[in-house]
Amino acid sequence: MSSERDLQILPIVQESVIHNSKTLYNFQSLTASLFGVAAGILGLESYHGFLFYVIMTLLTSTVFYLVRIAPTSLHSSKSLVDTSAYFRSSFEFWTGGLFSGLAGYILTWTLFYGLVRA
């Protein structure tokens, strides 16, 4: 939890947090559809397809974190894995994409699986 002094030095602006959440949601939705295309073309079935989705989504969150958040976290006194200054919660950042992009993933996965295997 941030102290009052920290919040005065670097205030958390709710509009920015909402913007960051929308940007992350759009990024995860787009990549989920791309992962569905890849899984369909590769011909993944059943648990292998879902495992591919989970691994790729967590990998995408990690890359997003390393590119966009970690460089700014180096200059503050906060922990490197703390995303509360930029997002509503760390849980939302790391696992939000698993649930928000699942429908798009399944849709494109089955579409491209059917197109390639037909």
From TrEMBL:
Keywords: Endoplasmic reticulum, Membrane, Transmembrane, Transmembrane helix. The chain crosses the membrane at residues 24-44, 50-70, 91-116. It holds the Pfam family EMC6. It is a multi-pass membrane protein. The keyword DNA-binding does not apply. It comes from the Eukaryota. InterPro entries: Emc6, EMC6-like. It is found in: Endoplasmic reticulum membrane. Belongs to the EMC6 family. This is ER membrane protein complex subunit 6. It comes from Phialemonium thermophilum.
